[in-house]
Amino acid sequence: MTYLEWLRRRWWILVVAALLGAGAGMLVSQVQTRTYVSTTSLLVRQVGQDANQGTKVNLDTEAQVVRSLVVAERARALLKTAIPPEDLVRSLSVTVPPNSQVLQIVYEAQSPEAAQAGSHSFAQAYLDLRLATATRSLENETTALKQQITETNKQLAAVAGKIAGTPSNSVERARAEADRNVLTNQLASLNSRLSPLLSIVLDPGEIISDAALPRKPSSPNTTLNLASGLGAGLLFGIVVALVLDRLDTRVRRGRDVAERLGLPMLLELPPRPTGLTVLPAAHEVSRELGRLRNVLQSTMPESRPGRGRLLLLTDTSPGPAAGFVVGNLAAAYARTGAQVAVVTTKPDSPLAGMLDGVRPRHTLADVLRHDVSALTALTPAPGLNQLRVLLPGNLDTEVELPVATMLEILAELAARFDHVLIETAQPTAAVEAQALARHVDGVILVVEGGQTRSSEITAAMRQFEQVDAPVLGAVLTPRLTDRGPTVRPAPPTSPARREGPPSPRPRPTPAGRPQPGAPNFESTMILPRAGAGARDTAARPAPAPPGTGKSGPVPPGMAKSGQAPPPGPPKPAAQQKPTGKSTVYRSARDTDGPDPSRYSMALDPVEERE
Length: 610
What we know:
Layout: H1 2-9, H2 11-31, E1 36-44, H3 59-66, H4 69-79, H5 85-90, E2 92-95, E3 102-109, H6 112-164, H7 171-199, E4 205-209, H8 222-247, H9 254-261, E5 265-268, H10 284-299, E6 309-315, H11 321-334, E7 340-344, H12 351-354, H13 364-368, H14 374-377, E8 379-381, E9 384-390, H15 403-414, E10 419-424, H16 431-437, E11 442-448, H17 454-466, E12 471-477, H18 533-539, H19 605-609
Parallel strand pairs: 5-12, 6-10, 6-11, 7-9, 7-10, 11-12
Antiparallel strand pairs: 1-3, 1-4, 2-3, 8-9
């Protein structure tokens, strides 16, 4: 299965390499010179005095004779060409079929006619040379015998004359008669040897299959080149794909995280891609996140009484994975009836798009500028009454978020909500991720399969280990298909500029008080957490006497029609701003215009005292 997954991931490399190899084979076929081959088959017979003895010809020796320069010279004369014999021999090949007396003479040329003529010429030249050699040998032997017979006849004539001139009973006559008998026998022997030679018919062999005119070239072999190029390209592609897969450290399965990094795997979502949206409760991913919610509720440490649990989810690589998990995990918490708040510090968080593109009136940037309180800036999630979202707004990505103010916001939300989920970018890019991690009840690393690398997860773990953050484990999501820009909240409209000297900064509307004629977006009821009522009652100031123009106290979490919702709980003395100083976060909106401080909605100490 591992190899099948590897081939499935890298199939395009194999296809490209195979196509390139096939293209190279086709290119080689086009570049190569076309050659033609013609073959002549010769039946070689024994020639000479041993022709009738049934002895076989040594065809290996005869094949070397065919490739000799002597035969090449004869073939050159038959072809009537100026090509040197050495070049003619390079174009010739001779094969010997097993268990036969046949020679196959193959000649290669750049035209069909030249191939046919060359093969036939070499075959004919070889037969002619063999016949000439046998004829010359036979003639030499016959001539030698004839000369011996002639000499023997002369000697025999001399002996006959000597016999005729000597007495019949003499020793000389007897000796002459003995010599005559020897010469007569010798002459008979020579004649017996000469007689078969005169009757021999020389047959060196014959052409049993003459060279034919080739119809198609033998080289280049397009099919062979194409198959060879395809195989070589496929082999090269396998090697390249294997090397790339070994060098690729992207995480694709949950066991990759556990085996490579030793990080507990809390959840591995189904590999089927899903869109960036809050999924319905019946969806498979929602059910898996519901099981993760159950596990977290039973394994996370209990928070202090009257305080909700803080859970930080951070990306390990750039992308929308953490926002997708945060939105759907918060929905899983909200479906149990618990009060859930989501805070995101990522300017490009997909949460706004997941919540049907909501455009909140206030954002985290407004809270960090102290324009509104955190409870006032919360935006209800459509279809989930228990879920509130604090979207980032126009956060300046080049400015570090004030961690102290972020902790105040989280403490204020934890006092009112059962669960507070925080989404941050990867800790290597967002400093607040590491700073907030040591103040939460648990940290979950969100890994996007096929996108996040092992080195990025290791870097994130190292950041959290440095602050001893309670890292619970990792959640692996499939590679999300929708990676485009998410819907971001529209920036609030800046007041119109007027000519003349600078005017003092306008007084902000008190937190939680609606603008006249504006719709009240904060009219949704936020139920207080159990055990928080006594603390809120003790911390809330006494009701103002009649006629002071201040409204009396309002029960926490209640907002009546036509009345402003209650302001957030008063800040502890340790968290109030020191007199004479104003710690204000300036977002990207504050950098517009020549004098950004003119239009800041931050409260200064003088306005607070007023």
